[in-house]
């Protein structure tokens, strides 16, 4: 009789051991309330350590034999003997594989319904935790910074920011992280995994947040606006950088010269001035540049690209700055004035050259005759007197000139252009010098005098003819 009872007990234990186990999976990807919300929520809800503690506590209350297995993608929890209720909620284990009968029984037990959405829960405690998403209740606060959280696990992970604890390390580079979720995202740097792709253009991203930010390119959404000027931005980081224009904040300074910058990228580019680093080279001529933008502008020399045109005369330029300088020809704008004589110039370099006249400084001297000049361009023009070089030719008559200005004056013979007019009689002249000589008729000015008799003349040629009287020469 005793042996029959023991045999029956063994059969019942065997049947119990043969019952299928319930497999639960803890999904590590949290629900993100907003794109730019603090990512501590992601750390905590995706933290396998926190999940394991919660499940062990829950299993002890239910009297279950729980085995927790750690996997790279998710935590797997097996509740043996099929006893007790199953746990399910956002960020809480949910059923992954069940038999049809077990699934039906399990669904029947999910009797706690959320009044705000369609979700059902098998535990009242899980429903209460879920409702905090709708109510915004955050009962757990950080003792260091006062920040509040709706889930205790999130707070615990957040506190690692203050303690500096980073228990999760990357096996590839050794970098450490405060949560397993951040580690998993980081490891995509090494694996190259980009699981999130844009449905509009197909571009892939390693992070969901990166994809959501990118999608604003297609939607045109710019939710962040500047309170000073109203300009809108798609990312809060770009807004913060923009606001430094208004605040004048320049947090990045050069250790070599002390110059400050509002952006780190600006500082790094500037530092190449001191290091001499020129990483960008022209494929046509090999010239190197410290900035990519400078290289692109230079390449227009080879391509002949001139994308900027003057709306007044149609002249084209390869640089926007050159166009703006040219437009002063039409507007007459001369923003640079000499402190000594008040003369104004349209370009700063013209003013600097002019100021050398007042200082008496002539740094450029001719190697042939020793004559000094205030600019290198004046020296170059002068040297053509010695070399006889005449690089400018008239397209109408073929006549050559050593100076570009002389060619332009000459071309007025062919065009008939007479831009200089007399304010007294209205007569027009092709050259400014001719106008000035003419004006002596009205002013009576006679700057040329005979050294023999003292008679004065308004024109040099008239003086020379007069001097033949004294010399006896016959012209």
UniProtKB/TrEMBL annotation:
Entry GO terms, CC: nucleus
Sequence ranges of Basic and acidic residues compositional bias: 1-20
Keyword Nucleus tagged: yes
Molecular function GO labels: DNA-binding transcription factor activity, RNA polymerase II-specific; RNA polymerase II transcription regulatory region sequence-specific DNA binding; zinc ion binding
Location of the protein in the cell: Nucleus
Record keyword Kinase present: no
SUPFAM superfamilies tied to this protein: beta-beta-alpha zinc fingers
Pfam families linked: zf-C2H2 (PF00096)
Keyword vocabulary terms for this entry: DNA-binding, Metal-binding, Nucleus, Repeat, Zinc, Zinc-finger
InterPro entries referenced in this protein's UniProt entry, alphabetically: Znf_C2H2_sf, Znf_C2H2_type
Residue ranges annotated for the C2H2-type domain, each copy included: 112-139, 140-167, 168-195, 196-223, 224-251, 252-279, 280-307, 308-335, 336-363, 364-391, 392-419, 420-447, 448-475
Region named Disordered: 1-37
Family indicated by similarity: Belongs to the krueppel C2H2-type zinc-finger protein family.
Protein name: C2H2-type domain-containing protein
Species name: Esox lucius (Northern pike)
Lineage of the species this protein comes from: Eukaryota, Metazoa, Chordata, Craniata, Vertebrata
Gene that specifies this protein: ZNF239
């Amino acid at each position: 009789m005793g042996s029959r009872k023991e045999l029956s007990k063994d059969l019942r234990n065997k049947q119990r051991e043969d019952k299928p186990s319930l497999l639960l999976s803890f999904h590590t990807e949290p629900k993100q309330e907003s794109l730019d919300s603090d990512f501590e929520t992601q750390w905590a809800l995706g933290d396998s350590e926190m999940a394991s503690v919660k499940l062990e506590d829950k299993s002890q209350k239910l009297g279950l034999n729980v085995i927790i297995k750690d996997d790279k993608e998710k935590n797997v929890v097996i509740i043996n003997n099929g006893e007790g209720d199953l746990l399910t909620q956002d960020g809480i284990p949910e059923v992954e594989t069940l038999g049809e009968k077990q699934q039906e029984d399990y669904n029947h037990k999910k009797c706690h319904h959320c009044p705000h959405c369609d979700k059902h829960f098998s535990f009242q405690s899980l429903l209460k935790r879920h409702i905090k998403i709708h109510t915004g209740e955050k009962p757990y606060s950080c003792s260091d910074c006062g920040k509040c959280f709706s889930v205790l696990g999130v707070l615990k992970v957040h506190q690692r920011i203050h303690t500096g604890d980073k228990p999760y390390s990357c096996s590839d580079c050794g970098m450490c992280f405060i949560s397993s979720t951040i580690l998993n995202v980081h490891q995509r740097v090494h694996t190259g995994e980009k699981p999130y792709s844009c449905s509009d253009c197909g571009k892939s991203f390693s992070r969901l947040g990166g994809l959501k930010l990118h999608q604003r390119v297609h939607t045109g959404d710019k939710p962040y606006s500047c309170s000073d000027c109203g300009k809108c931005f798609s990312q809060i980081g770009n807004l913060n950088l923009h606001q430094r224009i208004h605040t004048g904040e320049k947090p990045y300074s050069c250790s070599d010269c002390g110059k400050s910058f509002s952006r780190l990228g600006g500082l790094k580019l500037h530092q190449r001035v001191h290091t001499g680093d020129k990483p960008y080279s022209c494929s046509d001529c090999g010239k190197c540049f410290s900035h990519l933008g400078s290289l692109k502008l230079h390449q227009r020399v080879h391509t002949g690209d001139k994308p900027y045109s003057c709306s007044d005369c149609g002249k084209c330029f390869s640089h926007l700055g050159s166009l703006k300088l040219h437009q002063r020809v039409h507007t007459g704008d001369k923003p640079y004035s000499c402190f000594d004589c008040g003369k104004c110039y349209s370009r700063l370099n013209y003013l600097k050259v002019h100021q050398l006249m007042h200082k008496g400084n002539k740094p450029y001297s001719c190697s042939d005759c020793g004559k000094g000049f205030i600019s290198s361009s004046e020296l170059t023009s002068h040297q053509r007197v010695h070399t006889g070089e005449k690089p400018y030719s008239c397209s109408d008559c073929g006549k050559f000139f050593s100076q570009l200005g002389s060619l332009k004056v000459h071309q007025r013979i062919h065009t008939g252009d007479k831009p200089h007019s007399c304010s007294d009689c209205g007569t027009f002249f092709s050259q400014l010098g001719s106008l000035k000589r003419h004006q002596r008729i009205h002013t009576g000015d006679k700057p040329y005098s005979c050294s023999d008799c003292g008679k004065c003349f308004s024109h040099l040629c008239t003086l020379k003819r007069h001097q033949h009287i004294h010399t006896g020469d016959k012209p």
